[in-house]
Amino acid sequence: MFKTDDRIVDIAMGVSFFIAFMYAAMMIFDPDVLLMRYDDPTTNPDIDTLKVFLFWFGVANAGMITGIIYMGYKGLDRAFFAFAVPFLAFGIYWNITPAQNSGNYAGIIMVSIGLLGLIIARARSGLPRNPFDIPKADSYFGTDDMVTKVLLFLGLIGNAFNVVIYFIRPEGLIEDSPFLIMSAEAQYFSMAMMFISLSWVLTLLYQMRAGYSMTMIVVGLMQSTLMFVGMLNFMIRNNFSGDDGNSLLGLFITTFFVGSVILFFRNQSKA
Amino acid sequence: MIKNNDTPTVVILSLVAFVALTYSFMFLNPMNAEAFVDRSGGLEQGQAGYFWMGLIGTIYLALAIGNIFALLATPQECAVYYRVMVTLTALLFLRALWITMTQEGGGGISAPLVMQGLVWLGTLVVYTRSGQRIGSNVLWS
C-alpha cells in the first residue's frame, strides 16, 4: 500500500486512518457522545449549536480518511501532509481547553497519536525531509487548464477570507447565523472552522507552487459533498424557509461543492 | 480514476450516490429523522422508529459508497451489484407505490414516489447500458 514496501508506513497511516475514522463517525453521526464526555457542569451552552460545529469537524476528518484511502492506491502526497499535519496540530491545541475543563484528556492523546502516525509515515516516505523545500511548477498550480486554476485560486481566496474574517470578527459566524446560539463554548468551537480553513490555505499555497494535487481534490470533494448534504438536510428540516439560514455560509458551501465536483471531473482522468 | 467510460452511467451513479447520501444523513441524524417523520404525516414518533431509521440510514450510506466503488470499476466487474441495485430500487418503488395507493383518501403523486421511480429508472438505464441484462450473458442451461 501507499506504493511503498515499508510496513511502518502502512501501520502509521493505518493508525492515523483509524483515529480519523473514529472521530469522523462520532462527530457526524453521534456528537452527543463527545459532548457528554466533555461536559462542563458549570456551563449551559446550546447543545445544537455545538453539534453543528462538531459536524463540520467530523466532515474535515472524513475528508482526511478519504485522502488516506486515495493515497493507499496512488502513493503518499506532500499536499495531503500540508493539510493534515497542521489540521491535527491545530486539533491538539483546540482540544486543550475542553480537556482542562472536563478532565478528559482522551481526545488530546488520540489526536496526538494520529499526528505522530502521519509524521512517522511522512519521515519514512522518501519525500523531501524539509517541508519548505518545495519544487516550483512551470505555472501556478502546475496546470494550463484555466478552469482548474481559477477554481483553486477561488478556494484559496475563500479560505483565506474565512481566516481573516475570523480574526477581525470572531463572533461573526454565530451572530450572522440564526440557527446558531452564542455562548462561550460555541465561540470556542467556532475556532475549529478557522483552523480547517487555515489548513486548506496552507495546502493550497503549497499546491500553487508545486502543482495541484488530485489527493486534495478528492479530499475537498468528500468534505464539500458532506457539507452540502448536511446543508440540504438542514433546509429540508426547516421546510426550505430562509429565516434560519446564513446566505453567505450557504453560498460558500454551495460554491465549495460545485467547484469540487468540476475540479474532480475535469482532472480525474489524468490521475 | 473512473473506470466506467459511459458518461450517462457516470452521471446517474453520481446522482444516485448523492441522493443515497442525503437520505442516509436524514435517517442517521435524530433531528433530521424527527423532521422526516413530521413531514411524512400521521406516523407516530418514537425511539424504536428512530432506531430502525438509523439502520436504514446505514444501508443508504453503504449504497452511496457502493455507487462510488461502481464508478471506479468496469461495468463487467459490477454485474452483480447492478442487478442487486435494480432489484432493490424496483422493490422500493413498488413499496412506495403501494403505500401511496392504499393511503386513506387516496394519496396523490408524492415526492418520495417520484424519487423512487426516478432512482429505479436510473439504475435500469445503468444496467441496460452496461450490456449485461439477463438473457444477454446468462446461460440458463
User: By helix and strand content of chain A, what is the structural category?
Assistant: mainly alpha
Q: Secondary-structure element order of chain A, as H and E?
A: HHHHHHHHHH
Proportion in helices of chain B: over 70%
What percent of the residues of chain A sit in helical stretches (DSSP H or I)? over 70%
Describe the structure.
The complex is a heterodimer of chains A (271) and B (141). Chain A is mainly alpha-helical. Chain A is 74% helix and 0% strand. Chain A contains 10 helices and no strands. Chain A has helices spanning 7-29, 31-37, 47-74, 78-102, 106-124, 146-168, 172-175, 184-210, 214-237, 247-267. Chain A starts with 6 loop residues before the first helix and ends with a helix. The mean pLDDT of chain A is 91. With 141 residues, chain B is an all-alpha fold. In chain B, 72% of the residues lie in helices and 0% in strands. Chain B contains 5 helices and no strands. Chain B has helices spanning 7-28, 30-40, 47-71, 79-102, 111-129. In chain B, α1 (7-28) runs antiparallel to α3 (47-71). Chain B is globular.
